[in-house]
Design goal:
168 residues; single chain; 6 helices; mainly alpha
C-alpha cells in the first residue's frame, strides 16, 4: 500500500530464543540449533577508531576509548565479538561518553549555583536513550548467539562493563 501500512513490521513475531537456552533444553524433536561459525581469522579489528580518540573528553571518569575497550573485552569473554559490527561498539561508546559529559556539565552548573538551561538535562536524557538503544543492538546479538547463559537485565551487564578492570 502507498500509505505504509502493508508488509512485515520490523521486530514483529515471536522473539528468537537465546542459543544458551536452546542448548540447555536439548531442543527435543526439532531441527538442530543454528550456531554461527566463522573462520578463525574472522574477528574484526577491535582497535578503537581514530575519531573516537578525537572525541575523548578530558574530565569524564571514563573516556570513549575506555568504554570501547571495556565493551570489546566483555564481548571477547562472551565469545560473540566476531558477530558484532565494530561501528555498533563505537556508537555505543561515543553516546555513553556524551551522556557522561552532559551529566558532568549539569553537576558543575549545580555546584556553582548557576541556573540550569532547560535544554541541558534534556540533552543528557537524549544521549542516554540513544546509548541504551545502541547497547540493545549489541545485547540482542549476544543474547541470541552466546553459548553462556546471560543473567538478568542488559543494563546490569552494561554497569558491570563500566566497572570492570581492563587488566583482567
Amino acid at each position: 500500500m502507498a500509505n505504509g501500512h502493508g508488509g512485515a513490521r520490523p521486530g514483529a513475531g515471536r522473539k528468537k530464543k537465546p542459543l544458551a537456552d536452546v542448548l540447555l533444553e536439548g531442543n527435543p524433536g526439532k531441527r538442530p540449533p543454528q550456531i554461527l561459525a566463522f573462520a578463525p581469522g574472522a574477528v574484526p579489528d577491535t582497535t578503537p577508531p581514530l575519531w573516537l580518540d578525537e572525541m575523548a573528553a578530558l574530565e569524564v571518569e571514563l573516556d570513549v576509548t575506555d568504554i570501547y575497550k571495556r565493551t570489546v573485552l566483555w564481548l571477547e569473554r562472551t565469545g560473540c565479538l566476531h558477530l558484532i559490527n565494530p561501528d555498533f561498539i563505537a556508537d555505543y561508546a561515543l553516546l555513553k561518553t556524551r551522556w557522561m559529559e552532559c551529566e558532568l556539565i549539569v553537576k558543575q552548573l549545580m555546584l556553582r549555583g548557576l541556573g540550569l538551561p532547560s535544554s541541558a538535562p534534556e540533552l543528557g536524557l537524549k544521549y542516554l536513550k540513544q546509548a541504551e538503544l545502541a547497547w540493545q543492538k549489541i545485547w540482542r546479538i549476544v543474547a541470541e548467539n552466546s553459548t553462556q547463559t546471560l543473567s538478568g537485565d542488559p543494563n546490569d551487564e552494561m554497569a558491570k562493563i563500566m566497572n570492570m578492570d581492563l587488566e583482567d
